[in-house]
Amino acid sequence: MSDERSGELEEATRSAQVWRVEGGAREEIADQLVREEPLELRLRDVSVAVLMRTPGADEELACGFAVTEGIVADPRDVRFAAHCRRAMPVYGRNVINLMVPDRLELDLERLRRNTFASSSCGVCGKATIDAVFVRSAPPELTVRVSLARVREAVAQMRASQRVFEATGGLHAAGLVNLRTGRLLAVREDVGRHNAVDKVIGRQVLRRALPLRDHMLVVSGRIGFEIAQKARVAGIPVMAAISAPSSLAVDLARKSGMVMIGFVRSERLNVYAGEKFIDLDE
User: Fold this and answer.
1) How far is it, in rounded angstroms, from Cα 238 to Cα 174?
2) Is the pTM of this model over 0.90?
3) Count of CA atoms in the C-beta half-sphere (13 A) of 27
4) Euclidean distance between CA atoms 55 and 92, whole angstroms
5) Given 63, 84, 121, 124, which residue is catalytic?
6) Is 84 assigned a catalytic role?
7) Which domains does the chain have, with CATH numbers?
């Protein structure tokens, strides 16, 4: 195992003794558990959110969350994020400060109230979709979507799930350039929304948004929140191993996005954007 992979597993997992029962026999073994720890997100040293996440790529998570949840409207205003390890030696690895320009006017108390509310319950239906439309433009897609490329991207993401391979307990998200077919990044997390925010946050830090002609691939289902994050990031295509929700499909269709679910080697379902896909290939 490479040093990089070993370090990734050490940060994201811990060992625990468990009893394995099989065929009437039992034995005590060491098992790998995925870590779940809180990450407090601060903006100008004011706490605005607490995310339950798997440690790793915290800077990307903070930047992606800030943009996709509308805490910072313009991705270019996200400079970087840094842990508070020097000021808080014990808990600093679980506290991160997001750096934005001094000129940016922020109602931090309103952000704190709204962010905690959206993280726990949110709202549903037409009001939610309309709110997303107000703060984001429709994603742009200028290339045809190849179903072979979709299947290949899902297979590549699954093959890259290193921590899942060790624990069996993580979600994953990947970002694919539809022009080249290149898998740009894969991130894993105990929270499926966090995995998406990490992938998007990586591109926020690279000043690459909006992500036109890109595809978001996820290891589970596509709920409304994930579809919303894709739209805000300008990602026009979403593909999942599992199913989308009704509200996610509504958002995709109203936005002119492509949504594909139940991706397998021999079959898949197209829920939205069929006019952009070569269905007969």
Assistant:
1) 10
2) no
3) 6
4) 12
5) 121
6) no
7) 37-122 (3.10.20.10), 147-276 (3.40.140.10)
Q: How far apart are CA 158 and CA 139, in angstroms?
A: 26
CA count, 13 A, side-chain hemisphere, 115: 25
Tokens, residue 267: 């079959």
SS3 assignment for the chain = CCHHHHHHHHHHEEEEEEEEEECCEEEEEEEEEECCEEEEEEECCEEEEEEEECCCCHHHHHHHHHHHCCCCCCHHHCCEEEECCCCCCCCHHHEEEEECCCCCCCCHHHHHHHHHHHHHCCCCCHHHHHHHHHHCCCCCCCCCECHHHHHHHHHHHHHCCHHHHHHCCCEEEEEEECCCCCEEEEEEECCHHHHHHHHHHHHHHCCCCCCCCEEEEECCCECHHHHHHHHHCCCCEEEECCCECHHHHHHHHHHCCEEEECCCCCCCEEEECHHHECCCC
Q: Which two tokens stand for residue 158?
A: 């699954």
Using the structure block, give the residue that is written with the tokens 């197209």: 270
pLDDT, tens digit, for every residue of 19-73?
999 988 999 999 889 899 999 999 888 888 899 999 999 999 999 999 998 889 8
